[in-house]
Design brief:
Blueprint: E1 6-12, H1 15-18, H2 22-33, H3 38-41, E2 44-47, E3 50-56, H4 60-74, H5 84-91, H6 95-103, E4 109-115, E5 124-129, H7 131-139, H8 142-187, H9 194-199
Antiparallel strand pairs: 1-3, 2-3, 4-5
Length: about 200
């Protein structure tokens, strides 16, 4: 039994929007679905290089309305903020690197978003990023440069920590020697009348 014919519309999804990331493409798909009625949202799919809408011919009116909304949603889609997982996929970086580079300003945030994820009682707030900055970081291969900088910084921090530890140990050693000298001096026996004996000059 053949499937009923469908109404099909497709819109290009340029590389400047996806930045070569399938995760980013799915994010755009979710963004578009969020702007559509539930029934129409299930019919939207991000595919290779385009967004597709497929609905039964019986839903012609809904198809037309959804098409108009998708067209509006795609206008300026290149400027849609980049989500954390999208940034990691685009730049091929780890979550640890993203957190570190966000904290030190190399991956500046352009704001935050708060969403309630399915299965979680509390909402989650996270930073989002400027797609043009992410694109620039990608084009200049900055993650590779930043990793080298981090390796050098870690080595320098280890060197400084080792030097500080050596100084601390040396200081503790000197303190221990001085303490032992004081203890030895305190413990040295004194003979009764010795001071008077010395005062008479009998040892000269």
């Amino acid at each position: 039994m053949s499937k009923p014919p469908l109404l099909i519309a497709e819109w290009p999804l340029p590389p400047s929007a996806t930045l070569g990331s399938s995760v980013r493409a799915k994010g755009i798909e979710r963004e578009i679905r969020a702007r559509l009625p539930w029934a129409a949202s299930r019919c939207v799919k991000a595919e290779a290089g385009h967004i597709a809408l497929r609905m039964p011919q019986a839903a012609a009116a809904e198809f037309s309305a959804a098409s108009a909304k998708i067209l509006r949603a795609l206008h300026g889609i290149e400027d849609l903020p980049v989500l954390p997982r999208e940034a990691e996929d685009i730049l091929t970086i780890s979550a640890r690197e993203r957190h570190k580079w966000l904290k030190d300003g190399r991956l500046p945030s352009i704001g935050t978003r708060t969403v309630k994820l399915r299965g979680r009682a509390k909402a989650v707030t996270f930073h989002v990023f400027d797609p043009r900055h992410i694109e620039d970081v990608l084009d200049r291969d900055l993650p590779a440069i930043w990793r080298e900088e981090d390796v050098r910084e870690a080595a320098e921090n280890r060197r400084r920590a080792a030097g500080k530890a050596a100084l601390t140990r040396a200081g503790k050693g000197k303190t221990a020697v001085a303490r032992k000298a004081r203890e030895a001096d305190t413990a040295r026996p004194r003979l009764d009348g010795w001071d008077a004996f010395e005062d008479e000059g009998l040892l000269r």
